[in-house]
Write a structure and sequence with these properties.
The structure holds two protein chains of two kinds. Chain A is of the alpha+beta class. Chain A is 51% helix and 12% strand. Chain A folds into two domains: 3-102, no CATH class; 130-254, Outer Surface Protein A, domain 3 (Alpha-Beta Complex). Chain B is an alpha/beta fold. Chain B has one domain (17-278): Divalent-metal-dependent TIM barrel enzymes (TIM Barrel), CATH 3.20.20.150. The radius of gyration of chain B is 18 Å and the shape is globular. Helices cover 38% and strands 18% of the residues of chain B. Classes of the chains: A alpha+beta, B alpha/beta. Chain A binds chain B through residues 2-5, 7-9, 11-12, 15-16, 25-28, 32-33, 36-37, 39-40, 43-44, 47-48, 80-87, 89, 120-124, 150-151, 193, 196-197, and chain B through 44, 47-55, 71-74, 77-78, 82, 84-85, 88, 107-117, 119, 121-122, 124, 126-127, 130, 154-159, 223.
C-alpha cells in the first residue's frame, strides 16, 4: 500500500470512527493531532447533517434539531457517503429509521420526502400536444398505454403523512394544521412537479389504482375495466382529462395487434 | 504529461469580478440582472436529469459568462476516479460551455467512503506524481485544462517536505492546468500556521494563475476558519491588491456560501474587487 493511501485511510478512520491515535504520528506537532481531528470530525458531521436537513426539511421540523442531529450522526455511521455527488446521500434514511423502530409514520414521512427530493431533479418531459391526443382518439383504448412524467412518484402509506407534509410547507395555510400522532389510515399520493415546484396530491383508492396500472404499462381499456370493477361508474375520461391537465401524462405508445 | 486541448468555444471571462451563484439568489438574479461580469457555480448542484435548477442555469448562462467550480472529484484520492461523477461533469460542461472548470488540490475519499470535504494532501513527491497523473486523466476526459485551487488546511502533515506554493507551481507546470488562487485561503493558512503569505504568492507563476477567489473567514479562538460566511476582510483585500499588482488583473470571484446576505451585498463586494482590478499597477518581478 502506498504511503499516501495509508495516510488517507488513517485519516478517514480517525474522523469517521473516532480513532485519533492512528494519526498521532502523522500530524505535526503531535499534541495538535487530537484538536485537528476533532475539527474535521465536527465539520464533516455538520456538512452531512446540513445535507439531510435540506433533503428532509419536514422531518427536521417534526423531530426538532437535537433529535435530528442524533439521527444524522447515526445515519452517517451506518451509511457513509459513497459519492462525490451529495444528491443521493440520504436515500436510505427511511430504511435507517425503520431499523431504529421510530414511530412508523415518521418512516413514511421520510419516504415521502425522499420521493419529493428525487422528483425535484427528475428528467423533464414535454407536455402532450393536441395532435398527440387526436392520435390517441383515432385508435382504440385497448392499443394505448400512457407514460407518466419522469418526476411522478406513486406512494402508498398506512398513515396520511401527506397531511403533515402539506401543513409544514412554507406557504401552508392554517386550515392545513394536523394533529399528531397520525391515525392509521390507508393513503395514496402522487408526487409530481409542476412549473418546477413539487406537489403532493392525495389519491383515493380508484385514482391510485388507475395511475398505478398506467405506470405499469397497462392499456387504457384494461385500466378502465379494472377501475370499474372497484368503483362502478368511475368517471374514467374525466380522470384522464384531469391528469393530463396536471401534466402527469407526458407520452403514450400505441400497440400493434398481431 | 501536459496535453494539447482544442480551443474552448465558451464565452470568455473578463479580468473583472464575478459572484458565486447560489439558489438563494436565483429569483433576484433573474429579475434584476445584477451588474457583475460573470458567475460561478458548483456543477454538482446541476447533476440531476431535469427540473428547475437546470432551467434557471440555462437562463443565467444566456446572460453571463459562467465558470464551474467542482467540489466532488476528489483529485488527490488514492481510490479510482469516480467515473460516473466525471461523466456527469463532462455532460454538463458540453451543455453549458463554461469558460473555466476548476477543482481543488485536495482529496475526499478512500476505500470507497467519501468524506465530502476538502482534505489536505501531504506535499510529498509521491503526492505530486499521484495528483498530476489524476489531473492529466481528468483533463483528457474533459478535453480541456482544469484550474486547481489552493485550499485551507487545519493540520500540518509531519512528512510534507515541499512548500505548498512550490507544490502548486509544479502541478501546473507538469499538467498544463491553471491555478485558481484563493487569496482568503492563503491568508487563513498563513495566520493559522504562522507563515508569510507573500512567500506563497511569490513562488506561484503568474502566467499559471487564471482566476482568483475572495471570501470571508470567521475567527474561532486563535484559529481562522474559511467559512465563506462574511464579507472579505480588510487584510484579505490588502493581500489581494498586492497579488493583483504582482500578477496582473485576473477574473476574481466573490465566494459566499453560508450566512448568505442580500444579493446587493455580493454585488458591492464585486464592485470593490473591480476597483482594485482597474487601479492595478503591475510591477516587474
Amino acid at each position: 500500500m502506498s504511503r499516501l493511501r495509508e495516510i488517507q485511510q488513517a485519516f478517514s478512520e480517525c474522523v469517521m470512527e473516532g480513532k485519533p491515535h492512528r494519526l498521532a504520528t502523522e500530524i505535526a506537532p503531535a499534541e495538535s493531532a487530537l484538536r485537528s481531528v476533532a475539527f474535521y470530525r465536527r465539520a464533516i458531521r455538520f456538512n452531512y447533517t446540513q445535507v439531510l436537513k435540506i433533503t428532509y426539511p419536514v422531518l427536521f421540523q417534526v423531530v426538532g434539531p437535537r433529535y435530528f442531529d442524533t439521527l444524522a450522526r447515526g445515519y452517517l455511521k451506518t451509511y457513509p457517503s459513497t459519492s462525490g455527488d451529495l444528491f443521493p446521500y440520504g436515500c436510505l434514511l427511511p430504511a435507517f429509521l425503520g431499523d431504529l423502530q421510530v414511530a412508523p409514520w415518521l418512516v413514511q414521512l421520510a419516504r415521502l420526502e425522499w420521493a419529493c427530493h428525487e422528483a425535484y431533479q427528475a428528467a423533464d418531459s414535454p407536455p402532450l400536444l393536441p395532435e398527440h391526443l387526436q392520435a390517441i382518439a383515432s385508435v382504440g383504448p385497448a392499443r394505448v398505454t400512457v407514460h407518466l412524467h419522469a418526476a411522478a412518484r406513486l406512494l402508498r402509506f398506512p398513515f396520511p403523512v401527506h397531511r403533515v407534509w402539506l401543513a409544514l410547507q412554507p406557504d401552508a395555510s392554517a386550515d392545513e394544521a394536523v394533529n399528531l400522532p397520525l391515525p392509521e389510515e390507508e393513503t395514496g399520493v402522487v408526487v409530481t412537479r409542476g412549473e418546477g415546484k413539487i406537489q403532493v396530491l392525495p389519491l383515493n383508492q380508484s385514482d391510485y389504482l388507475v395511475l398505478e396500472a398506467m405506470s405499469h404499462g397497462v392499456d387504457l381499456a384494461t385500466v378502465e375495466q379494472m377501475v370499474a370493477e372497484v368503483q362502478p361508474g368511475f368517471d374514467f375520461s374525466g380522470f384522464v382529462a384531469e391528469v393530463l391537465k396536471q401534466s402527469l401524462i407526458t407520452g403514450f405508445s400505441i400497440k400493434d395487434f398481431l | 504529461m501536459s496535453l494539447e486541448f482544442p480551443t474552448i468555444t465558451s464565452t470568455p471571462i473578463p479580468a473583472l469580478a464575478g459572484i458565486g451563484l447560489r439558489s438563494h439568489h436565483f429569483r433576484e438574479i433573474l429579475a434584476e440582472n445584477p451588474s457583475v461580469a460573470w458567475m460561478e457555480t458548483h456543477p454538482e448542484n446541476y447533476f440531476g436529469d431535469g427540473g428547475a435548477p437546470l432551467h434557471i442555469l440555462e437562463q443565467i448562462r444566456s446572460r453571463y459568462p459562467l465558470s464551474f467550480h467542482g467540489v466532488g472529484l476528489s483529485l488527490g484520492s488514492t481510490d479510482p476516479i469516480e467515473h460516473a461523477h466525471l461523466h456527469k461533469l463532462k455532460a454538463l460542461i458540453d451543455r453549458f460551455e463554461p469558460a473555466f472548470v476548476s477543482e481543488h488540490l485536495s482529496w475526499s475519499s478512500v476505500g470507497g467512503r467519501f468524506l465530502n470535504d476538502l482534505l489536505p494532501l501531504p506535499y510529498t513527491p509521491e503526492s505530486l506524481d499521484h495528483l498530476c497523473s489524476r489531473i492529466a486523466a481528468v483533463q483528457e476526459v474533459l478535453r480541456r485544462p482544469l484550474l486547481i485551487e489552493n485550499i485551507t488546511r487545519y493540520l500540518t502533515w509531519r512528512d510534507s517536505p515541499i512548500p505548498e506554493g512550490e507544490f502548486m507551481a509544479e502541478v501546473a507546470r507538469k499538467t498544463g492546468c491553471g491555478i485558481l488562487l484563493d487569496i482568503n485561503n492563503v491568508y487563513v493558512n498563513a495566520i493559522n500556521f504562522h507563515l508569510d503569505p507573500l512567500e506563497f504568492l511569490k513562488v506561484i507563476p503568474a502566467h499559471a494563475v487564471w482566476e482568483i477567489h475572495l471570501a470571508g473567514f470567521d475567527r474561532f479562538g486563535r484559529r481562522l476558519i474559511d467559512t465563506h460566511g462574511q464579507a472579505v476582510h480588510l487584510e484579505v483585500w490588502n493581500l489581494y491588491e498586492w497579488a493583483i499588482n504582482h500578477l496582473g488583473p485576473r477574473p476574481t470571484l466573490i465566494e459566499w456560501d453560508t450566512n448568505l446576505p442580500a444579493l446587493h451585498v455580493l454585488v458591492e463586494q464585486a464592485a470593490h474587487a473591480d476597483a482594485i482590478l482597474e487601479g492595478c499597477h503591475v510591477t516587474a518581478s
